[in-house]
Amino acid sequence: MSSITAPRSVATPLIALIICGCIIAAVTNGIRTSFGLLTLPMTADLGLTREAWGMAMAIQNLAWGIAQPFAGGLADRYGTAKVIIGGLLVYALGLTLMVVSPTGSMLNLTAGVITGVGIATSSFSIVMIAFGRSVPQEKRSLVFGVATAASSFGQFAFAPIGQAFISNFGWQSALIYAAAILALVIPLTFALRGRTERAAGQADLKFMEALSRAWGFGSYRLLVIGFFVCGFHLAFVNVHMPAYLVQCGLSPEVGSWAIAVIGLFNIVGSLAAGYLGGRLPKQLLLASIYFSRAVAIGLFVLFPVTEVSAYMFAAAMGLLWLSTVPLTAGLVTLFFGARYMGMLYGVAFFSHQLGSFVGVWLGGFVYDHTGSYSLVWYLGILLGLASAAIHLPIRELSAKSFQLKPA
């Protein structure tokens, strides 16, 4: 299979590209996954309900999902570095404006729309486009796993750092410091410059034509639908679990360390998924991940919540956290080639973010109306089992509609 590389004039040594891309992925994801630590201080200081805060986070995930296909398409056509620079600036702007957003409506705009668009155009999904064009198909799952593991390391590193900033300087200063860190990584985007070129024998399609052909491919449809559940799980746990643990009588520090443990164990999970994805059927690995999540959630809600059980659950979920990403991205590039990875993985990621929207908002809604998160935990179990079943019929085949027809 032909590999797709950046034009020689903008070529970067692969190791430099991977290191710089991993740092960007770690910073952007680390900051994003720390938002759950803001739930209690911001709702208390601003007088917001849990549902209002959850709505802002839900809109962030939805804006991220809506913008992702377009961000991916722009990166495919005009280059990853340009898109990431713009995204980092928008991301930093959103964090800064959160400081001066005293109402839920303002947070919907700043923490929601602006920050969500910034994440879409600067996070690991765009970094993986640069990785995908630089390595052959058989190694892409592993490299995608490296990018995902770097994102997880950011979650591990930023959770305790973020909690320390909030505890010592207040949530407002913590957001300003995070915005400054985003600005500092802009020079690293130089290593990711370049765009993906069309491979020999591959059709050159416009956005809607490519999307139409892709959606007609049954395995892609199932992959997109199943990815909804991944977003539901991740967003609900990330945003609401710190507050849930406090409700169960544990300290806020336990919540921050639980998020950190998820990030730490996901480094192992992401690397393992990337490695195994090059050797075993990706769809079966994905089905196993979703089934295992359902089991982990079921055990967590079945037994009393203690500091030990919180960390055990965080470790289990960490192994399964973003391990879906290298496998999903690997299937997308197998189906359609690297030329359309940014756009068509972005469409799949939109489904993921729809799930995130529902998970974050529903968590706040259910808590405000019942005083408990139990219903959402149970729904997470059912969705995990459903997603496991959906992935079983997927086949690892290239979509013929994306190949040039003989003259």
UniProtKB/TrEMBL annotation:
Keywords: Membrane, Transmembrane, Transmembrane helix. Gene3D superfamilies: MFS general substrate transporter like domains. Residues 14-398 form the Major facilitator superfamily (MFS) profile domain. One of its GO terms (molecular function) is transmembrane transporter activity. The chain crosses the membrane at residues 12-32, 52-71, 83-100, 106-130, 142-162, 174-193, 214-236, 256-277, 284-305, 311-336, 343-363, 375-394. The keyword Manganese does not apply. InterPro entries: MFS, MFS_dom, MFS_trans_sf, Proton-linked_MCT. This is MFS transporter. The lineage of its organism: Bacteria, Pseudomonadati, Pseudomonadota, Alphaproteobacteria, Hyphomicrobiales.
